[in-house]
């Protein structure tokens, strides 16, 4: 694997180059200076304490810290926070990051968005069984006609991803304000905003079939939640998740020229606040002291697959998560479902190495921000998941 100079780019970071190495190392920590963002306020409640207390962690913590440092060194890591039973076991920052630096989450945003939508579902404003067109009739006549919210949550609609080439992706990034304005002959014309392409989705197979990873489905899920609640996505995530979480800092999310938030890849937050989300989920949606943040049953539902879910995942999911029996549910990658008690293992994953890892039996949460030189590198993805599992094992002995 080639090595990249991390001392800093020789030319300024711009909207043209910010996603390429070495510029991405700096850019992922300074998104608001490149792209318009909307705040996801933390509110005024108390911060969930993650104080390091040597007396509160077990003797294997030293070995876990060694493994964590090794993982960080191998995988272009910008920030790494390891929690055991809610206490910091290991924490490190590189490439200019600090505890209060927000970093782009990429597709970890999907899992954050879906977790906030879980509260919308619990409120009764929408249901997994609802027809997409019953919530937004504008989708009638598109490839989403007949799809249910559950199909979006699990990425099992029968729609085809329509951003299939580099040129089309570049055109889409332009409408998201993630790239300079540009036109390409292959593109269907410049969309008004980042949601324009959703009306062109076509159906190529029955809904509810095999899993296929498609960012468009998170964007549709966000639109449905906005329609059901009357809230724009940044405020929805703030009210239904970030304020109750005990986050220390506001998060933010990129928005297009019409103010539409990029639900699938646009959230930025600190590593500690991402770890706090994992800790609340590890506690089944509860903060220490018993205050509920994530609805009762949401985590259990995520960790309880439908009968055919693992089989539906295998054809397209295994390149991302090479663990036997893995599946995708509620926009989380599940490495191990709950079998007895609280023993699930699940992750949020994003390109260029963003990760949130929750291991229930080990009582471990790991938040990791990175700046890989390529969007997806199989070797680094496997090393990251294996490294997290090794850290969890070190903190509990034999699992």
From TrEMBL:
<dbReference type="InterPro" id="IPR001466">
    <property type="entry name" value="Beta-lactam-related"/>
</dbReference>
<protein>
    <submittedName>
        <fullName>Serine hydrolase domain-containing protein</fullName>
        <ecNumber>3.-.-.-</ecNumber>
    </submittedName>
</protein>
<keyword id="KW-0378">Hydrolase</keyword>
<dbReference type="InterPro" id="IPR050789">
    <property type="entry name" value="Diverse_Enzym_Activities"/>
</dbReference>
<dbReference type="Pfam" id="PF00144">
    <property type="entry name" value="Beta-lactamase"/>
</dbReference>
<dbReference type="InterPro" id="IPR012338">
    <property type="entry name" value="Beta-lactam/transpept-like"/>
</dbReference>
<dbReference type="GO" id="GO:0016787">
    <property type="term" value="F:hydrolase activity"/>
</dbReference>
<feature type="domain" description="Beta-lactamase-related">
    <location>
        <begin position="72"/>
        <end position="375"/>
    </location>
</feature>
